[in-house]
Amino acid sequence: MKQKKALLENSQLVRRFNNFKSNKRAYISLYIFLSLFIISLLAEVVANDKPLLIRFNAKFYFPLFRNYVETDFGGDLELEVDYHDPYIHDRIAENGWMLWPIIPYKFDTIDYALDVPAPAPPSRAHWLGTDDQGHDVLSQIIYGFRISVIFGLVLTFFSSIIGVSAGAVQGYFGGRVDLIFQRFIEMWASIPSLYLIIIITSIVRPSFGLLLIVLLLFRWLSLVGVVRAEFLRVRNFEFVKAARALGVRNSVIIYRHILPNAMVATFTFLPFILNASIIALTSLDFLGLGLPPGSPSLGRLLAQGKANLQAPWLGITSFVVLSVLLSLLVFIGEGVRDAFDPRRNLV
Amino acid sequence: MSLLEVRNLSVTFKTGVREVQAVKKLSFDIAESEAFALVGESGAGKSATALSIMRLLPEGRAFYPSGSIHYRGRELMGISEDTLREVRGNRISMIFQEPMTSLNPLHTIEKQIGETLVLHKKLSVEEVRERTAELLNLVQLQEAHTRLNAYPHQLSGGQRQRVMIAMALANEPELLIADEPTTALDVTIQAEILSLLKKFQSQFKMSLLLITHDLEVVRKMADRVAVMKSGEIVETGKIDEVFENPRHEYTKYLLSSELKEVLPEPETLGEEVIKSDNLSVAFPIYRGIFRRKRGEVRAVDRVSVAIRGGQTVGLVGESGSGKTSCGLALLRLIPSTGSIKFMGEEVQSLKSGDIRPLRNQMQIIFQDPFASLNPRLTIGQIVEEGIRVHYPREPKSTRNRMIATALGEVDLEPEYMNRYPHEFSGGERQRVCIARALILKPRFLVLDEPTSSLDMSVQTQILTLLIELQKRHNLAYLFITHDLRVVRVLSHEVLVIKNGHVVEYGPVERIFNNPRHPYTKTLIKAAVDMEID
Q: In CATH, what class is B4-255?
């Protein structure tokens, strides 16, 4: 019997997935996005200033997982190895070989071997050029993409949970609960969040977690209105009355009957919330109020592009990356929403 | 020559890659000052036909693969919008089903009626005002002169429909298309509107194209009738011929879709299931900034009713008379005062937690089968709901068997369990609603207009099913409806209610043959003869 239930749920899932697949644009977007995201999750392997594998004196070395000192490779100093150093390079080349990642630079690797002044234009060594401190742009993008997407997903997840719950309670119970909550939200929403963030970041050193919490304080508001409206509408439907006539509890009615119906509105907004979260982090970084200096970020790259108009590859690259990322997410969101709407199954 | 000649009309709707042929090679004529009716069940293509005469179907989605429409010998198909506009609203005008949405809520009555006059007759402001007042008098709108500046929300449904008719008549059209003009109205108002239309038709020598699913309305109004089925006309002819001697199977089927099942005999009735004494429902009125209670509206006023097992009590009244409130109050779904005894036990004083165990014994079936099923749950999950609440410990296999039995009782396949409500027709959805109520084996069912949004033949099927179930399980029914024709065959006793008051209460035969109260008399005359004094 359990099997049968699993099968039934499975068939629903399969149905939804097939629906999603039938939307070609969303499906292709999902593919592209997932590939990019997986690449960025593996950023350390794709773009790093340490070789993946070293063969030296008939022994294998794994610089990604262990730190070695120069004396290990025939150097003179008890210092961490800089594998870009020509001296070390030659030492290893004499007695073995090194396997480099596709992009032999980390986001914070400074390339001292540039033959033009930084920012360097795209070349064989730096496919998308470097910024004005000699950091590889492509590497920064891979790391920055990862942090932006993860930040966006986490922020969206938590703000949706808070927003949907608040909206559900207000819409379902209505009356005085709704009235008080609405006034509170109006006051809360009129707090200028940007200034608050500026003040907070000037007192405390901003970090991933702190930015997340501060932004979360204001982001959850965006869903409350929609969910509340949906609940106010659906709670008067006859199937809700029928459920009450059957003796179903309020909590079950909210969860089982109204929430799924309110989810279309939520799903419609979700891609925009996700995008807004990514933009929020990017713009804070752009203004220099975001993640601590030295962390990879699309916003900082944009700021670099603005500061170095003579190096158009900086601005163009970050613009293209951001717009592609945001468009992909909107397309996927659109597909997900349609897939969850049972009335579209027939199309 | 006929006024309107429709030849080989086909209408196709395209949505994405799907194509639906709504109308297939349809041909008919309407002579001058003739009343012609198009009859058929929902989805037969009646409205699509009417709208394509006016070319009001959404462009880009509706296509006309074939056909011609001649109006006084002049081709309407394929002429430009500008030329068409001379005909539309001037020579041919139209009234719609839903008076609530077919008037613009932001404009006064005068402005809306005057619009067509200004457009087609180029009258001055003064003349328009005069003519509008005249029209409102013509459609017998009460206090017509004071209503000129009224907004639609200040009028009742019947009054709005009168305004719609006034708008349609403004330019003295030669053809009036009436698309289900009275379906959304109460019986007495329906009778008034129909007699009004009839009067104008002879007065102005106007032709009428009447679209309806109600055969009684056709019999009353039309000279000739065409029966439509899935986009085609299956039979055309004079009213008497078609009704007396239907030739086509489908016409016979439509005409014979009357209730044949008989109610349980009164002798077999069981014990008293539910009894109310002076049941009242009041909605408070709040005024002022502090929302203090300043009064109340009595939606239900001291209603006493008793229903026994196997018995049906019909609760009859017009919209707004408190019928539904009364049903909901009996189930304790809305707060009320007065005594409610269920199986001899007082339930009015029970707390909401204590009433939950009783919920499996009293159930309700709603009017709109589209709104009463959660679109996000499968049929199985919907029917299962009651078991989840009352027998949460039952294993999955027992539950599935119970769902299958419940679906079987309402003649649905158990395989439907995994499908969603939108895949079903109105009749099938209503069966699902019944299954959901029956799975808990209730003793008392409130049927809140269970068939009024269904087609005639489907309505008969559902009612037959309800009677069978009543006999099988000895159910007590409170049957709420505005349709007296249904009440007559379906109820043992009738309760007539007006503004929350019981006007008359007694056995069905007595009420129909010998109504005592004038209101009951009016209702019955309006429903049975479609006439009004």
A: alpha beta
**CA distance linking residue B451 with residue B453, whole number of Å:** 6
Which residue spans within B288-330 are E strands per DSSP? 292-308, 312-316
- Locate all alpha helices (DSSP H) within B363-517, ordered by sequence: 379-390, 396-409, 426-438, 456-473, 484-490, 508-513
**Tokens at residue B431, please?**
């069966």
Residue B148 burial by Cβ neighbours in a 10 Å radius (0-12, 13-18, 19+): middle
- A245 interfaces chain B, CB cutoff of 8 Å: yes
> What are φ and ψ of residue B505, in 5° steps?
-145, 120
Instruction: Find the helix or strand (DSSP H, E) in which B519 lies.
Output: helix B518-528
The distance from CA B211 to its chain's CA centroid, rounded to whole angstroms, is 14
Closest Cα in chain A, distance from residue B324 (Å): 12
Please state which CATH number belongs to domain A18-43+139-344. 1.10.3720.10
The contact set of B with A (CB < 8 A) is 16, 18, 328, 331, 333, 355-357, 359-360, 362-364, 366-368, 371-378, 382, 385-386, 388-390, 395-397, 400, 418, 420, 422-423, 433, 436, 440
Ranges for all domains in chain B classified under CATH 3.40.50.300: 4-255, 266-285+306-348+356-374+444-528
Residues 6+ apart with CB under 8 A from B406: B383, B435, B436, B438, B439
Q: Which amino acid is it at B26?
A: L
- Sorted by sequence, the CB contacts under 8 Å of residue B389 that are 6+ apart come out as A246, A247, A248, A249, A252, B356, B359, B360
Place of tokens 């989840």: B388
Mean pLDDT of all residues in chain B? 85
Strand, helix or coil for residue B284:
strand
Measured in degrees and rounded to the nearest 5, phi and psi for residue B305 equal -150, 150
Query: What's the rounded Cα separation, in Å, for the pair B310 and B263?
Result: 9
| pLDDT tens, residue by residue, A56-102 | 888 888 888 888 888 888 777 788 888 888 888 888 888 888 888 88
Q: Can you state the angle between helices A137-173 and A221-234, rounded to 10 degrees? A: 40
Q: B426-438 and B379-390 are packed helices; what angle lies between their axes, rounded to 10 degrees?
A: 20
Instruction: Tell me the per-residue pLDDT of B354-375, one tens digit each, with 9 for 90 and over.
Output: 888 888 888 999 888 888 888 8
Above 80 in pLDDT, residue B247? Answer: yes
The span from the CA of B335 to the CA of B325, in Å, is 10
Contacts of A1 in chain B (CB under 8 A): 395-397, 400
What residue spans define the domains of chain A? 18-43+139-344, 49-100
Q: State the pLDDT confidence band at A187, using cuts at 50, 70 and 90.
A: very high
Q: Which two tokens stand for residue B491?
A: 């109820």
Query: Using an 8 Å Cβ cutoff, are B233 and B26 in contact?
Result: yes
Q: Rounded to 5 degrees, what angle do the CA atoms B159, B165, B166 make?
A: 90
H helical segments located in B88-186:
109-121, 125-138, 157-169
List Cβ<8 Å contacts ≥24 apart for A156-160. A156/A270, A156/A273, A156/A274, A156/A277, A158/A212, A158/A216, A158/A220, A159/A216, A159/A219, A159/A220, A159/A222, A159/A223, A159/A273, A159/A277, A160/A220, A160/A223, A160/A266, A160/A270, A160/A273
A244 touches chain B (CB under 8 A): yes
* Residue B492 amino acid letter: H
Residues 6+ apart with CB under 8 A from B19: B12, B13
Multiple choice CATH, B266-285+306-348+356-374+444-528, 3.40.50.300, 3.40.350.10, 3.10.580.10, 3.40.50.720: 3.40.50.300
In total, the C-beta contacts within 8 angstroms joining chain A to chain B are 83
ipTM more than 0.90? no
